[in-house]
TrEMBL record:
Alphabetized PANTHER family for the sequence: AMP-BINDING DOMAIN-CONTAINING PROTEIN-RELATED, LONG-CHAIN-FATTY-ACID--COA LIGASE
Name assigned to this protein: Uncharacterized protein
GO cellular component labels: endoplasmic reticulum; membrane
Keyword ATP-binding: yes
């Protein structure tokens, strides 16, 4: 991805450095989405806090 970003003229701070895939879908039932299908940011941050620390 970095090579492609450089080819397209992206600055280093604009490029993806780390990516992590999760198996769990964001749903209303698991509390990660609102009824209007918007992310519940606090719930997402709380659930994936360790993952965020790892990739940032």
């Amino acid at each position: 991805m970095i090579r492609e970003g450089k080819k397209r003229g992206l600055m280093s701070f604009e490029q993806v450095k780390a990516i992590e895939f999760i198996k769990e879908a964001f749903t209303i039932e698991n509390g990660l989405l609102t009824p209007t299908f918007k992310a519940r940011r606090y719930a997402v941050e709380k659930r994936y806090n360790e993952l965020f620390k790892k990739i940032y």
